[in-house]
Amino acid sequence: MQAEILVVGGGLGGVAAALGALRAGRRVVLTEEYDWLGGQLTSQAVPPDEHSWVEQFGVTASYRALREAIRDYYRANYPLIPAARAWRELNPGGGHVSRLCHEPRVAVAVIESMLAPYRSSGRLTVLQPYRPVAADTDGDRVTTVTVEHVRTGDRLTVEAAYTLDATETGELLPLTGTEYVTGFESQHETGEPSAPDAAQPMNMQAVSVCFAIDHVDGDHTVDKPAQYDFWRSYQPDFWGDRLLSFRSPNPRTLAISERSFTPNPDDDPLSVVADQRVNPGDGNLWTFRRIAARKLFTPGAYESDICLVNWPMIDYFESPVIDVPDADMHLANAKQLSLSVLYWLQTEAGFPGLRLRGDVTGGTDGLAMAPYIRESRRVRAEYTVVEQDLSLAVRGDKGAVEYPDAVGVGMYRIDLHPSTGGDNYIDVGSCPFEIPLGALIPRRMENLLPAGKNIGTTHITNGSYRLHPVEWNVGEVAGALAAYCLNNGQSPRGVRNTPEHLSGFQAQLIRDGVQLRWPDVSGY
């Protein structure tokens, strides 16, 4: 096949990259390994983690359109009570992690609708479910990428002028020989206050296999997982209890705290104000990432709330799953951990009415269709974002560094989960930050662009840049950049390093609804 722009990976970054390139008039081939487009929002079943100002500013116009279309989908298709239907900032789950907690399948429908006109016109071809298995290069350029159907083994080779890596783990970086880094960089290299003395390339954040549950009459206990006895007795040194418990470190203070778990509480989801500046929202695990609040729907429509489990005890940090020979085994172990958490909740914690809702997450085993991988391979970029660029402790009232080549904004605390190197949480306050174009440009490769969590961040700053709206912004800009280069006979490096092209590209982004600077707001 031939394409002007090939986007490998159909997560949030990949979808946004395709939209950014299509909006600029280019033809796109988009590939995705799983049956749902949308990545962490859909197949990985992670309700959006967003900053406190998301309803006012700090995201791109297309990301805002995605969010509002999700709300409109509920209003058009779900039996909402009148007060919920009239709620401008409708939060269907009444969850505390975000102002918009919803079922993954709704986001799939909305993403498909956003892409539909381009599919119909023939300018977008989606190859699904395909994963990349090989690539060819000519010097510093990618010439072709070969993708394989995950079920049949059939292969297709795609030739493109620009190739964007929007995979969850930066799969194209090793396939193309592009220089990249994994794990923890050293303080000597980055100067980061939270970095170790020596680099730790295999020290990566935990992965999680999420799942959805509700709580109804009857005994819905799953079969005892094969690894249950192992996980039941598993106790990390820093955890303060067994992993399978309601006790764990507070990410911000590291003090051992106990969370509550109350299925179907008698709360008012209309009164929920999700604001992580004020409260991280994880006190009651049930409402933390609730994606369907029964009281927002007509009586009898839902037997129970639906709760999405992405909690501390499902974090798998026994081994990384990138650049190791036994990644599949560790992903299988992560699934066993999640099933063991469910079995523990149903048996020892005393909630046999918990019911696994694999129909909600789309996985064939009752769990999420795809694992949630927080930390990708990261390209060696022209500019690497470091902790001191955005740390509230370092920057204070000066705010995050302002980049002359800013191509977007984001905000989230530097939020690192326990890691495969034995580290506890690293949770550092952040200033509202910008996304530098230099972080999207490899030091050597000319027509390969990162379009997700694989941009030029460090292990530490990835903790802020990995969240839903930032991944979308990065992808959208990567797609727009590839199109701009084709439209103007430029290279990505040339756009960044030529003042008239940089200002022209930034002006185009602004016209397309990409915010480049923050108003005067303080971090948290």
Automatic annotation (TrEMBL):
It holds the Pfam family FAD_oxidored. InterPro entries: FAD/NAD-bd_sf, NadB. GO terms for molecular function: L-aspartate oxidase activity. GO terms for biological process: NAD+ biosynthetic process. PANTHER family: L-ASPARTATE OXIDASE, SLL0471 PROTEIN. This is FAD-dependent oxidoreductase. It comes from Catellatospora chokoriensis.
